[in-house]
Amino acid sequence: MTKKVAIVTGAAKGIGKAIAQRFISENYTTILVDVDDISGKQLAEELGTDAHYFNCDIRIEKSVEELFNSIIEKFNRIDAVVNNAGIIKDNVIWRMPTEDFETVIDINLKGTWLMCKYAAQQMKTQQSGRIVNIASRAWLGNPGQSNYSASKAGVIGLTRVLALELGKHGVLVNAIAPGLIDTPLTQKLPLDVQEKLIQAQPTRSMGKPEDIANTVAFLCNKNTQFITGQTIYVDGGKSIGAGI
Ligand SMILES: NC(=O)c1ccc[n+]([C@@H]2O[C@H](COP(=O)([O-])OP(=O)(O)OC[C@H]3O[C@@H](n4cnc5c(N)ncnc54)[C@H](O)[C@@H]3O)[C@@H](O)[C@H]2O)c1
Fold it and tell me: What pLDDT is attached to residue 243?
């Protein structure tokens, strides 16, 4: 039997790296997509011959199209696509350069949409597949993140629509909304800010990238057959919103 094939965007570090490691441990041929060639190539080497690194800026349709064409030509199938690449550029709206709104929407929402478009074409042809979009708990609203929250709210809307469009074609589409996770993205925050965020968590802790990878593995498992269009919070309870 040919191996299952998974694509993970933003796979060079952080949450994407943990997801790629998890797919490899579950015996998938795993495509690591990123724009950070140094970390991406190094990780693919570490993960062995089932890991393949592709440079692809998910904002650029031609690059996404080429990515899917080469994967289909080489492996002939795509079983799971995890749209994880994302960035933040925080500021209160009155100080936020419009360019920072556009960049965040371009990567987090347009990039995810483009990946979903080409994944949907292949998965509809196959009549099977799983798409997991990494949103964020911040879609509920976070001061200083008008660009980011809007992009992640868009990802959740996109996920729900694709579940409706692809359900009858054997394709399940879900989102994960991580809370505070210990990655290079959050490690860039000043230590006192990190501590404040931890204290605002019901669990008083940060999550690990593996917490998200576990949820991806559950959503892509062959025994998970009846969940689609959902957003699963992996956030130490922060989305409950009360009591802090
Ligand atoms: N870390 C958290 O606390 C947290 C919380 C909620 C949601 N998330 C989401 O999880 C995802 C991963 O976050 P992370 O903390 O691991 O981030 P990270 O910054 O550690 O890693 C993101 C990766 O995406 C890649 N990337 C950026 N722009 C790209 C592009 N245009 N095309 C392809 N790859 C690109 C980067 O090179 C990087 O390797 C993001 O979507 C983020 O919004 C993270």
Answer: 55
Cβ–ligand 1 contact at 100 (below 6 Å): no
Distance between Cα 10 and ligand 1 center (Å): 6
Give the predicted TM-score (pTM) of the model.
0.98
Active site residue 233: no
Of the candidates 23, 183, 44, the one whose C-alpha atom is nearest the C-alpha of residue 55 is 44
User: Which fold, 5-235?
Assistant: Rossmann fold (3.40.50)
CB of 185 shorter than 6 A to ligand 1: yes
How far is the centre of ligand 1, averaged over its atoms, from the C-alpha of 7 (Å)? 15
Each residue of 175-224: pLDDT tens digit? 999 999 999 999 999 999 999 999 999 999 999 999 999 999 999 999 99
